[in-house]
Fold this protein.
Amino acid sequence: MELFIYLFFALFSVLNPIGTVPIFVGLTHDDSKTERGRISLWTAIDVFIILMIAFFIGKYVLEFFGITINALRITGGIIIASSGFSLLNGQFNKNKGINKKVEQEIQVRNDIALTPLAMPMLAGPGSMSLLITFYQEHHTTPEIIASVCAIFGASVSIYIILRGAHYLSKILGTSGIVAISRIVGFLTIAIGVQYIISSVLSIVRGI
């Protein structure tokens, strides 16, 4: 249970579905309620599939390219911390590559669930590196089951939040969403820094 709670909240902080609410509202303001529900569902499904692939196959990608786990943890820590800084500074859209030109291109698409919502806005390099590193350290059967449940739980939370994104936007308002995003950003920075510290200590012990 402790493993599940830790990974769930770590994933939730890095994925930051709350910070995606304004973007989702902007991209789906002309869609019907049914269409928004469909997009929310498929975004959550796509995120779950992407994270599962990263969790189970990421290890072999590292081995193929000869990347050490400490190198990945430091890189992932930097990416995660960078995402956290973007949330604190209110630059979430820019950090995810969502600018005016991209938004205009998205508006003419029939489906936005996979891109840009699932990837890279939600399941980006930070969450992938987090899961790849996590699998390296927790790969017994009970730990894998708990991890899969945490990934599933995070995906369900994405669906619930995006499903009610337009209501959340009205209730919280822009300032409320920004405040929550900054709190999440602070926690995300802490997760990234912790990964870097753990990697450095591991390297020092191995010398």
Remarks:
- The CA atoms of residues 106 and 112 lie 7 Å apart.
- The chain has one domain: 2-199.
